[in-house]
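pipeline: protein-struct stage 2 | run 1193 | WRIP1 ATPase
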Amino acid sequence: GEEHYNCISALHKSMRGSDENASLYWLARMLEGGEDPLYVARRLVRFASEDIGLADPLALTQAVAAYQGCHFIGMPECEVILAQCVVYFARAPKSIEVYRAYGNVKECLRMHTGPLPPVPLHLRNAPTRLMKNLGYGKGYKYNPMYKEPVEQDYLPEELKGTDFFKERGT
């Protein structure tokens, strides 16, 4: 019932708050109460990107490995895998930078009126002669061929200069 959601919320908030003891407690309470370990593992995959993000990019690898380990061996053996992951996450630095930036992109798309801006011609692939003649791919700079950073726009003209990583409206 409701306690299922209360416990997963407590686990998330304990990891978010870097409390490894509380994190282990809520994990054990869920597993010992019969919770599906794959449910917990799926929530850890989400947590890795939502709450830890780029502060520790290996967190996602840890979460996916924990999910796979739980899938391979099941309970009760997988409990220590989940425990390791939960403690890793509680101890990890936290960043919601990507989570917020992606939210800002979604807000930008939702608030847009009219047709969405087209993909700039230089970013389009030109697999046919007609597309090449229409200017697809013209002027595109293939970054790996340059030693220095390449000056090139990647957003549509209407969004030039937009920084989704800066704070937007609430």
